[in-house]
Design brief:
Blueprint: E1 2-7, E2 10-13, E3 18-26, E4 28-39, E5 46-51, E6 57-59, E7 67-72, E8 77-82, E9 91-101, E10 109-112, E11 116-121
Parallel strand pairs: 2-11
Antiparallel strand pairs: 1-3, 3-8, 4-5, 4-9, 5-6, 7-8, 9-10, 9-11
Amino acid sequence: QVQLVESGGGLVQAGGSLRLSCAASGSIFRINSMGWYRQAPGSERELVADTTSGGSANYADSVKGRFSISRDNAKSTVYLQMNSLEPGDTAVYYCNAVLALLSGYKVYRNYWGQGTQVTVSS
């Protein structure tokens, strides 16, 4: 019923930039927050950044000043601009949305994308 489709991952050298995109589609009533998480091998999934429908944003300390999250509510799309990338940013990046479906009781639940690999070489 809901799809989160990510794009924009890849291989980049340290100091470079990448831009991730994630578009939500399906029988969506309303999207509350959208954001990005990442998971490196052997590590737990962690929040990178998220943003509410009103535009407020929250960042992990490790990416503050380097990453910027933005959202196009009309397109149900969230972006993550990643600058000054470091080898420690290497991970699979997952899009997350907290949303309610058109059907049912309008309960807000977590939905995840399939993940996109970001690799930063030194």
